[in-house]
Write a structure and sequence with these properties.
Aldehyde Dehydrogenase, Chain A, domain 1; mainly alpha; disordered C terminus; three-stranded mixed β-sheet; 287 residues
Length: 287
């Protein structure tokens, strides 16, 4: 796509200017992703490389000053009408999870306050059984993997008896859940997503200290959990029917310690299975 431009610059009967060829070197594995990205960029209809080969594009349009083009926008600086804001990336289907600008000093200061508040909070986690009963047992300390002097909180591990009790309750409740209207199921997931988003700073404090994640990874972890919930909620509303879909038998979801929130949320809300939870908090999902 760039050959005609190169010929215009280097041709003896044209500009006759020296021109370097940019040729990245590497293995197939390392360069394939780069090649795909360049094909997408240069192949876009608005790409300069694409437009310069389009005979229907006038030269004056091709070399238009971008500052002049930007000055024509009314009101000045308004976003492009066809480019949705990050929050509206998925259109009317669902909201995108809220992100955090970690390059903003004020945002980082508020996150520091959240981490300090997390450090001063006596976090306790235990299995949640039927009827909101909290299981009793021997609690053990959970320390920050980056600093064992930082006691995050305590946790009561789920025992085999706790799992059995939760499964028995799930079996008893399964017919009720199966008969629950589709909209009610979807609303449950949407409310859960909103609650997670409202507590993002608090959850980040836990994830950073308890799972050893960086701030950037903590944001991604929580956003993924929120997006899982909203995605499943949208899928239920558009595709699910109590008349055509039958749930699986009750199941136990065990998520890995390194994704205590996102993968856990990705497992249990699936509309085809009434899942049971033997533990509710990232704090209890240690390795």
């Amino acid at each position: 796509m760039g050959e005609p431009l190169c010929e215009e610059v280097t041709g003896r009967d044209k500009m006759n200017r020296p021109c370097r060829v940019y040729a990245p070197v590497g293995t197939h594995e390392t360069l394939l992703a780069y090649l795909v990205r360049r094909l997408l960029e240069n192949g876009a209809n608005t790409s300069f490389v694409n437009r310069i080969a389009d005979e229907n594009v006038a030269i004056k349009d091709l070399i238009a000053d971008p500052v002049d083009e930007a000055s024509k926008i009314v009101p000045l600086g308004a976003p492009h009408a066809k480019i949705p804001l990050p929050r509206n990336l998925y259109g009317a289907e669902r909201l995108n999870s809220m992100g955090l600008d970690l390059s903003n000093e004020h945002r980082l200061a508020s996150l520091s306050s959240a981490l300090l508040a997390s450090a001063n909070h006596p976090w306790r986690a235990a299995p949640m059984l039927a009827d909101d009963q909290i299981a009793l047992g021997n609690a053990r300390d959970v320390c920050n993997p980056a600093d064992h002097r930082d006691l995050v909180g305590t946790v009561v591990e789920a025992s085999a008896e706790h799992v059995s009790a939760s499964l028995a309750h799930a079996v008893a409740a399964a017919p009720i859940w199966q008969a629950t209207p589709v909209e009610a199921r979807a609303d449950c997931l949407s409310r859960a997503a909103d609650l997670l988003e409202a507590q993002m700073h608090t959850l980040m404090g836990l994830v950073v200290r308890e799972a050893g994640k960086s701030l950037a990874n903590a944001v991604s972890e929580i956003r993924e959990a929120i997006d899982f919930l909203r995605y499943y909620s949208a899928q239920i509303r558009s595709e699910f029917s109590n008349d055509t879909h039958r749930p699986l038998e009750p199941v136990v979801c065990i998520s890995p310690w390194n994704f205590p929130l996102a993968i856990f949320m990705g497992q249990w809300p699936r509309p085809s299975q009434p899942a049971t939870r033997c533990s509710q908090s990232p704090l209890s999902k240690r390795r």
